[in-house]
Amino acid sequence: MKQKSASFAHALPILLLCLLCLIPPARADIGPKPEVTITVVNAPEGALYLDLLVQDAPTSSPWPKPEDQNNLDPAILKSLHSLEGDGWVLAYTTGAASHAPVFGDVRPREDGTWHYFYIGLPETFRVAAATADEARAAEVPYTRDFVSNLVYDWQTNTVRAATPAPLRFLTRLAATLVPTLIIEGAVLWLFGFREKRSWMVFLAVNAATQLGLHLVTGAALAQAGWHFLNYFLTVILQELVIWGAEAAAYALLLKERSRARRVGYAFAANIASFVLGYFPLHLLRSFLVHL
């Protein structure tokens, strides 16, 4: 009994450090927001404006229009507006999403990409692009993920994901699975689990729960890493479900130690990986959201 108490005593300081190591400042509006980044290839010479066409949207909005606040070329803006019609409206330039704003710019950022974000961002849209002399809109609508990085080909007038979906999913899965295995593996060792079978169960359970986390949370998990409270809001409910699933799995499948020790390990390991897992996700966030 004393040995068990000593093992828990060794693990307790680690859990306390995990809980105290991050005390983020209060911020308003820190929940995860959808975003889309678009790179244009085979672009024409000169200035190019880009927007998103959304169908069956209002043709007016209370939100400020870019022409009210930016020095835009009126000829290119008129060319871009010529793409509206047959129920299709420009989501940003016209402000079609009247229930909430869409932030961004019709002009490219310094890195040459277009970026739109916030809760008014339409889920399904057609990429629209225009110069002063010509305007094009992709014929096939695109349905985005929570965070999407797209490539628009001006020459073929088509849109595709910058990274194939299977590769993007596996990369994001690895970004959380590897740190989780390292952190929770260390806690498993501290809790006194040494048998090969215990480690095989540990690997199988974590692979299954991390896979489920990504299937449910999707690309929002990559977006979550920019701020700890954002990360907390995105992941906390899934973590509670994972803790319950892992506690049940370890209680049933592990044979070492007592059942109480197995359940206690599941709780301690998930607290540690939830808090410490923010650091690698935060560092990798800019890479993950651009897949």
**Proportion in β-strands:** 15-25%
Distance between the termini: 50 Å
Weakly predicted, low-confidence segments:
4-9, 18-28
Order of helices and strands: HEEHHEEEEEEEHHHHHH
Which assembly state applies to the chains in this document?
Answer: single chain
Provide the residue-averaged pLDDT.
82
**SS element count, helices:** 9
Shape summary:
elongated
Indicate the radius of gyration in whole angstroms.
24 Å
Main pleated sheet: 5 strands, antiparallel
The chain-level structural class is alpha+beta
According to DSSP, the number of beta strands is: 9
What portion of residues is helical? Answer: 40-55%
Characteristics:
single chain; 291 residues; alpha+beta; four-stranded mixed sheet; 9 helices; 9 strands
